[in-house]
């Protein structure tokens, strides 16, 4: 038997033709326009209709606020008159009162019911002109979730108002088995009665599940808002409070498995599409809502003292917090801003790729065009040959090659690069590559692109996010490497530096948007994320909830980090030592030496470059070839080389300005010829902050923070980038902080110790007092001081 299911594409195609004749759809709501359930259900209905030519009519019966029988009968008659006047093609009736007082006797037009709690047979459904969805009560699933959080509960009290909705919920509850658990159903007619029931319940063996609470009235006959009923209930009971309704959880109930008004409306909209495609209602089987969504209200659970384990909540569909709307708003703005930026860049590149000057392949003709484009975007505009060689506006022909870049194969296949992050090991500067093919006579003749710098934009975002306290942003490219963040220390190291608590979650996210809990640096966070379908980038907005840290012993934390950094040093040292031994057999074969340098470089991601310095202190060979311009340079005046030639032993330098043009440290191992004479040395050039960040960042646990200093006072690493490269004993920044300078001399002279000093907080915004512990790390007689600080007075103090 063939299925009568119609693919959504054909439904929409048919609808596009039917809309020429102004399809009319009328929605009858049982309640009022201000009721969140009604609003979200209407949004769900409309969400499946892309065609704006549909004419809509919505009528609200207002039976939530006006609950007397006389009004309900009147409202039903008014709805019938509105339908008669509008003459719709389809009528959608929402919730039980719309069925009871209007739709149950309506046979003139196709009718879809939804949000129905009572047995649909009560309204003579289904019938020849009517089909729809019965709202499922996910009470069993909600109770299972409740017991998972509160296993001590032995009796669950379901509390609801005296309404048709709760009558339908009672029908479903009475037909549900809860095993050995005791359950009671309380139906109340006023808010005062509700209060009495709630106050009568006590003891940790009891729990409350809120059913519908929309028709409760106070002593003056005024309807009490559902928000206030939920808020009062949570505040005035010591029991666990769950609910089967999404908006009740959003208003403050702890959690529940809920039926979404939006999804209920969406399913009704899909049935309407089938009817508009030509099926009659009696050809469409009635449905029960399924796949309830699990929801957890983070703040309410935390306020109740529940310890939240992020791994336990991984499968929860919706994590609710008081700031969920601001988080989503910030997330949407971030994604939109990025996609608009990408759209501007790629539109310009596509125009350039189709211009005669670029198609000609002549750099002199295309450079003015790329220069003009480059003025609008910070970065390096470039034209790339099919073999990977390339020009930039800044350097003209570079002599370098991009064919080994991860994105290059996609370009060769005719694809575009929509934001592939790369990192210069020499400068530590990140850039994001965008590129598109250039075609000449239907063949790819080259590529035009830009290696864009996002630093300025990142600082603009940081400024914007200062208005959202304890909220942080992160943007990851398609390879899940961090490209943007308000925590700039995370951008100092290699692309592989993980974001604590987030990086490991990215690969497990199976939806394009959602939320999750994570613990980063011992602080519990709620994160909202969204994946850009256009670019593959993932954006995360996270808000701090509470610290889960049990203050670690500083001595243990310091020892842990000292050990990790020393292990990194030792691994590099072992690798270079083996390389120096392998060099003995290939000293006279430059190609073999280059191959060895390349292998060492690829095996040690912390190093900027690997080089061979011959016995005359000439830098003879280097990898990567980007630095080939320094080959042939004499560097015999560098202290580490002088020491190596004097002793014949390996050496770790202090900080110096490398010929490559940046502050560095150099690890050197002597290379001996077969006859035992010194033939030169192998070198690992290391950029300190890039080397140290992957170890230190995950261990900067509030209120602790690490920094590293040479004994001469030069600051090698600090989470505040403003201080890196400054000298504690010479820079005017530190002159007025006597306690810091005095302690600095003690740190310089002693391999370990403890003390106090006063200095600026991160960002130099205020002055704080810090307690300090330090130890030492190093190799071959060269030491660095590893310093751990803890703010002990978080408020500003005077000098």
Structure described in brief:
The chain has 799 residues and is an alpha+beta fold. Helix 2 packs parallel to helix 10 and helix 18 (554-583) packs antiparallel against helix 19 (590-603).
Count of helices? 22
Overall helicity: 25-40%
Compute the number of strand runs.
35
Structural class of the helix and strand makeup? alpha+beta
Largest β sheet strand count, sense and barrel closure: 6 strands, parallel
| Strand content bin | 25-35%
Q: Low-confidence parts, pLDDT < 50 over ≥5 residues?
A: 1-21
Strand adjacency order, main sheet: 2-1-3-4-5-11
* Distance between the ends: 87 Å
Mean pLDDT equals 87
Rounded to the nearest angstrom, the radius of gyration is 34 Å
Shape: elongated
3D architecture notes:
The chain has 799 residues and is an alpha+beta fold. The chain contains 22 helices and 35 strands.
